[in-house]
Amino acid sequence: MLAVSIGFVYVWFGTLKFFPNTSPAEELAKNTIHSLTFGVIPDEVSILLLATLEVLIGALLMLNVLKRQAIVLAIGHIIFTFTPLIFFPLESFKAAPLVPTLLGQYIGKNVIILGALITLAQMRMPLSSENIEHKS
Fold it and tell me: Where are the alpha helices (DSSP H) in the chain?
């Protein structure tokens, strides 16, 4: 259930990014990717790449397909969501580090998602039917 709920949020928030000016995180995402890539990836392309990545991660988690790989991708993605705290501290905090702005709170809640992803990563995945057949 945890993987499905995280997957749902990824699909939902990722889908919003396919439609300009729909996601409240669109400008933040564009600015962050612009800073991380030194502007090599155009903003309009970067947001579509991010949307695709988020929807892919979410779909894999919801469908329980390539779950380990999806979790690794999601952990990497979530870690990068914290970079605006470094790149844009004035937008992230009213008084650093204990008084976040709404944007800072939006980023901070990702600690919960990161913890849930780490929990999923530590869980034993059931063996596939192929692995079970080879063990017999």
Answer: 2-16, 26-36, 43-63, 67-80, 84-87, 89-92, 102-108, 110-122, 129-135
Q: Is 47 left (phi over 0), alpha (psi -120 to 50) or beta?
A: alpha
| Angstrom distance (rounded) from CA 44 to CA 99 | 32
**C-alpha span between 20 and 29 (Å, rounded):** 12
| Residue 47 tokens, joined | 């947001």
**Across 11-34, average pLDDT:** 94
Scan for tokens 């992230």, then name that residue.
Answer: 92
Contact 45, 18 (CB under 8 A): no
pTM above 0.85, yes or no: no
**What is the spatial distance between Cα 76 and Cα 50, in angstroms, rounded to a whole number?**
12
Task: Give 85-106 pLDDT, tens digit per residue.
Answer: 999 998 899 987 789 998 889 8
What angle in degrees, to the nearest 10, is found between the helix axes of 2-16 and 110-122?
Answer: 140
